[in-house]
Amino acid sequence: MSSQPEHPTLLIPGPIEFDDAVLQSMSHYSESHVGPGFVSTFGDTLAMLRKLFQTTDPASQPFVLSGSGTLGWDLVAANLIEQGESVLVLTTGYFGDSFADCFKVYGADVTQLKAPVGSRPQLPEIEKALKEKKYKAITVTHVDTSTGVLSEIEQLSALVQKVSPETLLIVDGVCSVAGENIEFDNWKIDGVVSASQKAIGVPAGLSISMFSGRAMKVLEERKTPVAAYFASMNNWRPIMKNYEAKKPSYFATPSPQLIHALETSLKQILAAPVSERFAKHAEVSDRIKKAVADLGLKQVASKPEDQAHTMTAIYLPESVKATDILPALAKKNVVFAGGIHKEIAPKYIRFGHMGVSVLDPKRGDVDRAIKALQDGLAECGYQKA
Amino acid sequence: MSSQPEHPTLLIPGPIEFDDAVLQSMSHYSESHVGPGFVSTFGDTLAMLRKLFQTTDPASQPFVLSGSGTLGWDLVAANLIEQGESVLVLTTGYFGDSFADCFKVYGADVTQLKAPVGSRPQLPEIEKALKEKKYKAITVTHVDTSTGVLSEIEQLSALVQKVSPETLLIVDGVCSVAGENIEFDNWKIDGVVSASQKAIGVPAGLSISMFSGRAMKVLEERKTPVAAYFASMNNWRPIMKNYEAKKPSYFATPSPQLIHALETSLKQILAAPVSERFAKHAEVSDRIKKAVADLGLKQVASKPEDQAHTMTAIYLPESVKATDILPALAKKNVVFAGGIHKEIAPKYIRFGHMGVSVLDPKRGDVDRAIKALQDGLAECGYQKA
Question: What UniProt keywords are attached to this protein's entry (chains A, B) (predicted)?
Fold first, then answer.
């Protein structure tokens, strides 16, 4: 039995439904941010993040800061790129465009490889781009929350290693970390930026990231000062190292309650091999995608290999408006999200499937959502052709 | 009866002890950040902040962002100051120095007026400085958490209005908002930056600020782009306006749980006139300061008019080390903080007295802390001379 009151089931691509124990950790009594109890909690949490990201290289550096996921872009753009340096941004939706905007604010020379809506830049064109120009970094949105398009990190990394191994590989993992497999060391990733409120399963308010030893070296060897203060890795790196070594230190006050919730969630995540977690997300995602196809509906991500396992972006039938189906679903206590990709926004809806809604079949969240979608579409007058 | 488990009473200058209902709000079930329920909660919260800051000018703009209090400095430095513009930073401790560092990161031409430890820059020297050079902004730490020194905002404002009325008056209110009187409109303040975990009484994780219509005009009339992305007011201002108008919109995901906790705390704060809240903080502070004097101890803030009402920084007797008295207090379940001002760090301790510990006499927090301090010092071999 859940300790949460009855409420509509939140199945948007984040925030997701949270586990009871995680929510209870949010109410933890107040502690000093530099007291031994909390320092130990934060240190353990940082160590667990290494396991989630599958990195054993001691040079890898986790960062957990108070902020939205968006703050992770500032971490990358203000710390790893200097004024005028070139960045190649692979764009599969809204979030690639916004990451590019963030780089421009900090003076980067940005080249975007934009795929048509619903697909992703292909390896041959990426190879061509990497050969034409020297890039300090290449970025990729692992799952673009606006389209549900999944990018292949392993193959991309192999290409970067082959063509331009000195280029930093940066992954926007906001809608993928803890839902899609990420092998930080094996895939030679230099940075993954993420947030708490998606597959990591913790209320919003934490920017969570992992950077490689090579990225830290780039930071150390900057010719110009870091271009931010709160988002400066130089300010936070010693603090993160101290917390992990269980030593108190201070730059800005972290949120003990959010860190407790993150500790609780990471303990749950790491209680089983992470591969099982990713397999379960894939299995449930396949079931959802089959139900969508059975309804005669198409996904925004057109090819099966481009489809995320943490969410599904579904084109509506021409006869059904998002402003009709979303309220119809809400009446059935299921909350989906509307579209946010500006080229197609009114034409599709988004179904997030991460964390407890996927992993705990007793909740019945996914089956209830599929049924609600079937019934809701019928109520809106839709019949499969 | 509290619903919180037994735990040491946290009497550091933030985070503070939190009210049960506020902590329970942290466990709120998950909601969409753009759904009608949460949009209404956030909108009401922003409207209540106007009352806390005593501003009725509709041009005033509140911002509530996920982040530490430190993020407020980036908001000021990256949005209101352009490369090479001059800022006068009044420094009464560690936090004035750090605010100056933040300005430098964003390219400001910084002049610091530093007072000797335990005092504050005096009006005549501030007047001289303002007459010598044209400053875009002057900043003041209302209560410097490292020293417990209180600055007089009203008198400072009158001086700025007289000598250099076009200079923006920016207040670092991290350790003062909701504990010390701040009359945003009457005192012609252009910006107050604060955080959730001090007198506002909400777990850490929110940067909370208020800016004047004049500050917003400075933002609009910038000649160069804003120098940050996550900390860009241009990205957040329309979002804050939309939430307050109860319209959904998105730049980066806010934390529904922290916003619920803030709503709960602001409702409690505004249930009585804020003047009563400030008077109660002053009354309890006076009692603590008398107990400190009765023990034969001196405060870091030497003159009574320079002493904050939200915290007390206490010089230890020469015979007592911080590393002895702090653990002795901890054994009595009272948590004070050590010193952080680099010139005097080992010589003093800090006692925070804000929020429920001050306002709810049934808790007995303050009396227990005073008794623990008396007994702890005696155990450390101290006797009043």
Answer: Aminotransferase, Pyridoxal phosphate, Transferase
Tell if the CB–CB gap between A256 and B31 is shorter than 8 Å.
no
Topology of B9-16+274-379 in CATH?
Answer: Aspartate Aminotransferase, domain 1 (3.90.1150)
CA atoms within 13 A on the CB side of A190: 26
Domain residue spans in chain B? 9-16+274-379, 20-269
Phi, psi (deg, nearest 5) at residue B89: -105, 115
Residue indicated by tokens 């209302």: B142
Full strand arrangement of the beta sheet holding B311-315:
B311-315, B348-352, B337-338
CATH fit for domain A9-16+272-379, picks 3.90.1150.10, 2.130.10.10, 3.40.30.10, 3.90.79.10: 3.90.1150.10
Q: Specify the length of chain B in residues.
A: 385
Q: What residues 242-261 of chain B have any CB closer than 8 A to a CB of chain A?
A: 250-258
Q: Which residues contact A306 (CB under 8 A, 6 or more apart)?
A: A118, A119, A120, A149, A150
Residue keyed to tokens 């909740």: A363
The per-residue b/e assignment along A299-311, b for 16 or more CB within 10 angstroms, e otherwise, is bbbeeeebbbbbb
Smallest CA–CA separation between B205 and chain A, in Å?
5
Task: Please enumerate in sequence order all residues whose Cβ is within 8 A of that of A195, keeping only pairs 6 or more positions apart, or say none.
Answer: A14, A68, A69, A72, A174, A204, A206, A207, A208, B253
Do residues B252 and B71 make contact, with C-beta atoms less than 8 angstroms apart? no
Please give the C-alpha separations between residue A373 and each of A144, A281, A286, B100, in angstroms, as whole numbers: 22, 20, 16, 55
Find residue A113's DSSP bridge partners: A90
**B112 - beta bridge partners?**
B89
Give the distance from residue B346's alpha carbon to the nearest chain A alpha carbon, in angstroms: 15
User: Which whole-number Å values give the CA distances from B350 to A190, B197, B288, B297, B373, in the listed order?
Assistant: 41, 16, 12, 13, 11
Could you say which architecture CATH assigns to the domain A20-269? 3-Layer(aba) Sandwich (3.40)
For B300-315, letters b (16+ CB in 10 Å) and e give: bbeeeebbbbbbbbbb
CA A332 to chain centre: 28
pLDDT digits (tens, 9 = 90+) for B184-233: 999 999 999 999 999 999 999 999 999 999 999 999 999 999 999 999 99
Beta-carbon separation of A27 and B32 below 8 A: no
Rg, chain B, Cα only: 21
Q: Where do the DSSP E strands lie in chain B? A: 9-10, 61-66, 86-91, 109-114, 137-141, 143-144, 149-150, 168-172, 191-195, 206-211, 311-315, 334-335, 337-338, 348-352
Of A195, A229, A337, the CB nearest to B102: A229
CB contact under 8 A, B195 and A253: yes
d(CA A261, CA A254): 13
CA nearest neighbour of B310 among B269, B350, B352:
B352
**DSSP states of B225-245 as a string?**
--S-STT-HHHHHHHHHHHHT
Both tokens of residue B151? 């600055």
DSSP B180: B
pLDDT tens series, chain A, 385 aa: 578 999 999 999 999 999 999 999 999 999 999 999 999 999 999 999 999 999 999 999 999 999 999 999 999 999 999 999 999 999 999 999 999 999 999 999 999 999 999 999 999 999 999 999 999 999 999 999 999 999 999 999 999 999 999 999 999 999 999 999 999 999 999 999 999 999 999 999 999 999 999 999 999 999 999 999 999 999 999 999 999 999 999 999 999 999 999 999 999 999 999 999 999 999 999 999 999 999 999 999 999 999 999 999 999 999 999 999 999 999 999 999 999 999 999 999 999 999 999 999 999 999 999 999 999 999 999 998 7
| Intrachain domains A9-16+272-379 and A20-269 with the same fold | no
Is position B237 annotated in a ligand binding site?
no
